[in-house]
């Protein structure tokens, strides 16, 4: 500002001086705003330009030179033809077309194109502009801006990558897989070809991960991905779903045989040893195959069916492949149907308990009962637990169902006691899910309180595998039960984990010899030996022992002879409805 004052000449009139001052400050403002514009253009990596169409003169802002990687104001004269030479030849046609469209039709210019800067470098720019016409309707001026959008494009493609690709292996991920599968089914439908969807899962990957560490596990997955890729053609898709699960889409398949060939190849390449961090790792995989259109006509169904077939393969010997089959489909449908009706069944009171007496074989008297769950299904009739317990565990319904069983059993037992029937203990089966998931001790305590049943008349049946999972936590939980006065039995004893030390550490009061040993106890010396050992263990540790599934007198005699006198089985009574059980309690087993 101080400069402006010095410029004022003494000879000027006041009016002239004022005018000059005004002009000067306007000029300063203009310059400032130009500087500001240039600065913001620089920050935005945006340049402005004007193209006087009749004369062909093009004005370029300083920032444009910078964006295009050119020295300041060089060349001084810009022509359209020169500009064309900078544009990536692949984008030139579309750029010219956009220009024409603006000039001829007045459509605002908005086009992206690549510019070659320096040696090998390329940037992506976006130009936007408006056309002005003179009075005669001829194009006069095209003016606009050009923005460097390289970073944005790069970020976008990075995002695309993140969205569509697995970061560990670089393979397409689940999202892209669904897209590709969708396209592939459409294509196969047009070309009347079949399509193979292969779901593969490494066998025992978890164990490898746990013993060698996650880094080694990651390296193995990368190595597997690489070998798998070699099994497919470029037109196929290999994707990683996550974990150790991969999916391949085989396109252009004319016959199932060619899918089999690929599946065999995969098994072979995966079973070759891997060398990770100097360690030799042997791995195998299981493959499930669904074929379009036979096994499903949308990506969702195909993947579901391939998954199912994969589990089938795992269930067999592992290291093999299985095609999805109709029977599998029926199983799926039945399970889906069951799952839907299970929720309703619980609300509608379709579940009920039956009771099987536990008997002292010396006297024939009933000292206890096991509560067993039944489901009176409206369409399928009476269902036994093996039809629905697993499903209830998978879909979480075992939690409300188990709560209901516990409450119902306690309430029934209390009711019988109030009726004056001889008091007996009721054994309730717990599932692993119930055991692991929430404050089971609180639930049990609340149920006892609510129903008024004395804890000494409740026994909980657990399995060995349930106890071995989280030993410390379980020990605390079991101790709480013990303190509450509830007894604990181990169901199906001998079929699960073989370590016996936990028997000493957990407050268990009863072992239940599994039916499978009792069945052939009189004919199979091994089963007889196992039963005897279980009885001896129980005696040594001061536990009660009961034999399940006693069906014949011979079995009963063998067990009695070997000092197992508690028994449960069809020989005495099948599991029966509550009314019938009340009769058994009242009148004894053989009135
Ligand atoms: P479990 O606890 O081992 O029950 C004994 C099973 O053997 C019962 O089958 C019973 O009916 C059957 N059984 C008893 N005596 C004989 C016999 O002499 N011969 C033969 N062949 N079988 C006999 P069920 O009722 O079908 O129950 C099967 C399994 O389902 C039970 O095995 C138990 O693990 C589970 N389960 C039953 N009710 C419940 C429940 O309320 N909750 C949970 N979580 N599981 C339950
Ligand atoms: Mg049981
Ligand atoms: Mg059992």
Structure overview:
This protein is of the alpha/beta class and 591 residues long. It contains 23 helices and 22 strands. The protein has three domains: 116 residues, PAS domain (Beta-Lactamase, 2-Layer Sandwich), CATH 3.30.450.20; 160 residues, Reverse transcriptase/Diguanylate cyclase domain (Alpha-Beta Plaits, 2-Layer Sandwich); 246 residues, TIM Barrel (Alpha-Beta Barrel). Strand 13 and strand 14 form a beta hairpin. Helix 14 runs parallel beside helix 16. The longest helix is centred in the first third of the chain and has 31 residues. The N terminus is likely disordered. It is 50% helix and 24% strand. The strands form four sheets. It has an eight-stranded mixed β-barrel with strand order 13-14-16-17-18-19-20-21, surrounded by five helices. A five-stranded antiparallel beta sheet has the order 2-1-5-4-3, with helices on both faces. It starts with a helix and ends with a helix. The structure holds ligand C2E and magnesium ion (2 copies). One magnesium ion binds next to loops.
Brief descriptors of the model:
binds ligand C2E, binds magnesium ion, disordered N terminus, 591 residues, five-stranded antiparallel β-sheet, alpha/beta, 23 helices, elongated, Alpha-Beta Plaits, TIM Barrel, Beta-Lactamase, eight-stranded mixed β-barrel
What does this entry show, briefly?
With 591 residues, this protein is α/β, with parallel strands linked by helices. Helix 8 (205-212) packs across helix 9 and helix 14 runs parallel beside helix 16. The protein starts with a helix and ends with a helix.
């Amino acid at each position: 500002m101080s400069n402006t004052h010095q410029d004022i000449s003494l000879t000027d009139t006041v009016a002239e001086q004022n005018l000059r001052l005004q002009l000067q400050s306007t000029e300063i403002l203009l310059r400032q705003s130009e500087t500001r514009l240039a600065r913001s253009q620089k920050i935005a990596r945006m340049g402005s330009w004007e193209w006087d169409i009749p004369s062909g003169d093009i004005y370029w802002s300083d920032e444009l030179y910078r964006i295009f990687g050119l020295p300041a104001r060089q060349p001084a004269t810009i022509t359209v033809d020169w500009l064309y030479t900078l544009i990536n030849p692949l984008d030139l046609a579309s750029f010219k077309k956009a220009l024409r469209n603006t000039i001829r039709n007045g459509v605002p210019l908005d086009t992206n194109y690549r510019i070659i800067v320096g040696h090998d470098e390329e940037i992506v720019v976006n130009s936007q502009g408006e056309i002005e016409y003179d009075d005669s309707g001829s194009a006069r001026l095209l003016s606009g801006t050009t923005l460097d959008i390289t970073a944005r494009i790069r970020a976008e493609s990075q995002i695309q990558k993140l969205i569509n690709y697995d970061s560990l292996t670089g393979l397409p991920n689940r999202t892209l897989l669904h897209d590709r599968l969708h396209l592939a089914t459409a294509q196969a439908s047009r070309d009347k070809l079949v399509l193979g969807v292969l779901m593969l899962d490494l066998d025992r990957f978890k164990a490898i991960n746990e013993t060698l560490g996650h880094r080694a596990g990651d390296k193995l997955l990368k190595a597997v991905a690489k070998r798998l890729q070699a099994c497919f053609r470029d037109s196929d898709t290999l994707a990683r779903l996550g974990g150790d699960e991969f999916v391949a889409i085989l396109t252009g398949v004319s016959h199932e045989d060619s899918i089999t060939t690929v599946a065999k190849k995969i098994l072979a390449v995966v079973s070759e040893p891997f060398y990770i961090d100097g360690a030799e790792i042997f791995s195998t995989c299981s493959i499930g195959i669904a074929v379009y259109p036979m096994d499903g006509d949308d990506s969702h169904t195909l993947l579901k069916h391939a998954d199912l077939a994969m589990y089938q393969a795992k269930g067999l010997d592992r290291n093999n492949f299985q095609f999805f089959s109709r029977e599998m489909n029926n199983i799926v449908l039945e399970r889906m149907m069951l799952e839907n009706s299970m929720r309703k069944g619980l609300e509608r009171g379709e579940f009920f308990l039956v009771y099987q007496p536990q008997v002292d074989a010396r006297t024939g008297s009933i000292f206890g009962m096991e509560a067993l769950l039944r489901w009176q299904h409206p369409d399928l009739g009476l269902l036994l637990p093996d039809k629905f317990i697993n499903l209830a565990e998978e879909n979480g319904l075992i939690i409300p169902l188990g709560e209901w069983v516990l409450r119902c059993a306690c309430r029934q037992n209390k009711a019988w006691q109030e009726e004056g029937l001889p008091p007996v203990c009721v054994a309730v089966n717990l599932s692993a899910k119930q055991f692991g998931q929430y404050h089971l001790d609180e639930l049990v305590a609340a149920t006892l309180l609510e129903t008024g049943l004395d804890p000494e008349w409740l026994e909980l049946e657990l399995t060995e595998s349930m106890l071995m999972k989280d030993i410390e936590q379980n020990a605390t939980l079991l101790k709480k039960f013990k303190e509450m006065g509830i007894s604990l039995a181990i169901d199906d004893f001998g079929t699960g984990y073989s370590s016996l030390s936990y028997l000493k550490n957990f407050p268990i009061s009863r072992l239940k010899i599994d039916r499978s040993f009792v069945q052939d106890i009189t004919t199979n010396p091994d089963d007889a030996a196992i039963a005897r050992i279980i009885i001896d263990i129980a005696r040594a540790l001061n536990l009660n022992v009961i034999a399940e599934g006693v069906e014949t007198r011979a079995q009963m005699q063998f067990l009695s002879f070997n000092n197992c006198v508690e028994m449960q089985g069809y020989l005495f009574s099948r599991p029966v409805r509550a009314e019938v059980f009340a009769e058994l309690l009242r009148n004894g087993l053989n009135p």
